[in-house]
């Protein structure tokens, strides 16, 4: 596994400076998509990119963004979460990162895990095809700071459950 990230059209090695830049950007607000990566392949790239561009104008051609996603994913040899983040003006930009994802063991699935419904709707469903995911979820992430809670469930403004924050499930 490498620590390669894509930020605003350039591939960079993840180091302390790049990590700080990514954290700063995540606090700016914007939209994101999360993809499952297994053994160097991101899953359902086209569907995620279609949903992302239905909600916002991409700052680069979709083919270039797809190539960036594929390149970042290709360097990841385990199971991971690849995140495409589009930040809003005045510092609009794009980032593609991947982090480790460790599924629960079989015993946890048999016995169940604690989940929490996040209090604020974070996926907007006015147009169900878009299902935009905003970076506003970071404000409610504090609700998950309780170590006994494994998963946060995201819902839309109508109250319908839509997906899990950590588990990469779509409902």
Describe this protein's structure.
The protein is built from five helices and eleven strands; from the N terminus they run ββαββααββαβββαββ. Strand 1 and strand 2 (10-13) form a beta hairpin. It has a six-stranded antiparallel β-sheet with strand order 2-1-6-5-3-4, sandwiched between helices. The protein has 171 residues and is α+β, with helices and mostly antiparallel strands.
What order do the strands of the largest sheet run in, or round the barrel if closed? 2-1-6-5-3-4
Shape: globular
Order of helices and strands: EEHEEHHEEHEEEHEE
Q: What class do helices, strands and sheet pairing give?
A: alpha+beta
Rg value: 16 Å
Individual helix count? 5
Gap between N and C termini: 30 Å
Give the averaged pLDDT, no decimals.
77
Return residue spans where pLDDT drops below 50 for at least 5 consecutive residues: none
Q: Which strand-content bin applies to the residues? A: 25-35%
Number of strands: 11
Helix content: 25-40%
Characterize the biggest β-sheet: 6 strands, antiparallel
């Amino acid at each position: 596994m490498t620590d390669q990230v894509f930020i605003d059209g350039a591939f960079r090695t993840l180091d302390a400076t790049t990590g700080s830049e990514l954290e700063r950007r995540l606090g700016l607000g914007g939209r994101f998509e999360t993809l499952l990566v297994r053994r160097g392949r991101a899953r359902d790239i086209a569907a995620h990119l279609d949903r992302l561009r239905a909600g916002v104008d991409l700052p680069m051609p979709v083919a270039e963004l797809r190539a960036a996603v594929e390149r970042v994913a290709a360097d990841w040899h385990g199971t991971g979460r690849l995140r495409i983040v589009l930040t809003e003006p005045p510092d609009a930009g794009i980032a593609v990162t991947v982090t480790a994802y460790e599924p629960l063991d079989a015993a946890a699935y048999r016995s169940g895990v604690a989940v929490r419904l996040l209090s604020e709707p974070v996926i907007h469903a006015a147009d169900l095809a878009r299902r935009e995911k905003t970076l506003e979820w970071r404000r409610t992430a504090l609700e998950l700071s309780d170590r006994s809670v494994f998963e946060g469930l995201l819902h839309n403004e109508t109250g319908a459950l839509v997906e899990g924050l950590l588990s990469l499930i779509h409902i």
